[in-house]
Design brief:
Two copies of one chain form a homodimer. Chain A is mainly α. The first copy, chain A, is 66% helix and 0% strand. The first copy, chain A, has six helices and no strands. In chain A, helix 1 crosses helix 3. The longest helix of chain A has 38 residues. The interface between A and B is large, with 44 and 45 residues. The structure holds a DNA duplex.
Chain lengths: 131, 131
DNA sequence: ATAAACCCTGTACTTACATACAGAGTCAAG
DNA sequence: CTTGACTCTGTATGTAAGTACAGGGTTTAT
């Protein structure tokens, strides 16, 4: 007999904190098994996979709320999931654009800062203050 | 005599919420003028510029904590500010890379989803579940 | 002169994603 | 059979950047 998959072993297997497991249960994105009258809850092995799924989806930039929706849709409705992925993709593309703008601005500021080294005022501060 | 710059007019001029002004005061990133025994606080016009500075710096991706540091450094230490901007730039570049990875992954998933339309399983779900 | 609009202080609430802790119960190893 | 490690429930705390509100006081417009 192998050890029963109690919350501690589950957390270890899924590489998350015990408190995180409880938190996901509170959110309803993983099931909480019935508690036996005496003893501890035992989790099915799939719960490990489910937490891994959640963590991978987070790395893809999905929020827990979005992940909850993905999980509700479940298998078999591939189109819905694809559409959500497409929305997310559009959002990510916008984020990249915004960050590239920011990058250009910072670059310009840093360059003018170096060029203006002798003046008493800081071009970066100036650029922020002067509207 | 023009109207005294009370918190409401200040907020309007700087295009922020009154509560935001109070919040910034609590954070210590803008000064709170002395309250006269009777009547309301009156703000100097520079406070409008300061809030504008904060808002512009936020748009550049600086957190309020980072902005507080910028403001502490103040003018005259251009090098320090430039170095902070350079750190921020490096961070932004990393963010862009991460998002581009995410974008590629999402794209791949969406394409495989469309290609595999007939199978019963969703490639996106699979890719998340299987490891 | 009175009512609407504004200010003051202090505190509580919001979202997202957890993390921590108290006080009790349970299990497993020596 | 005791002790240390684990689990349970419920609640509180943490961050970031605000927003909201209660119950007062003050000012301004009519």
């Amino acid at each position: 007999m192998s050890k029963p998959l109690t919350i501690g072993f589950l957390a270890k297997a899924a590489e998350v904190n015990v408190e995180t497991v409880r938190y996901y249960q509170r959110l309803g994105i993983i099931d909480e098994p019935e508690k036996p009258l005496e003893g501890y809850r035992v989790y099915p092995a799939e719960t490990v996979d489910r937490i891994r799924f959640i963590k991978r989806a987070q790395q893809l930039g999905f929020s827990l709320k979005e992940i909850a929706e993905l999980l509700e849709i479940g298998d078999g409705h591939c189109d819905d999931i694809r559409i959500k992925a497409e929305h997310k993709l559009a959002h990510v593309e916008q984020q990249i654009k915004d960050l590239q703008n920011l990058k250009n601005t910072l670059n310009t500021l840093i360059k003018s800062c170096i060029a203006d080294k002798d003046t008493s005022h800081c071009p970066i501060v100036d650029s922020l203050v002067i509207k």
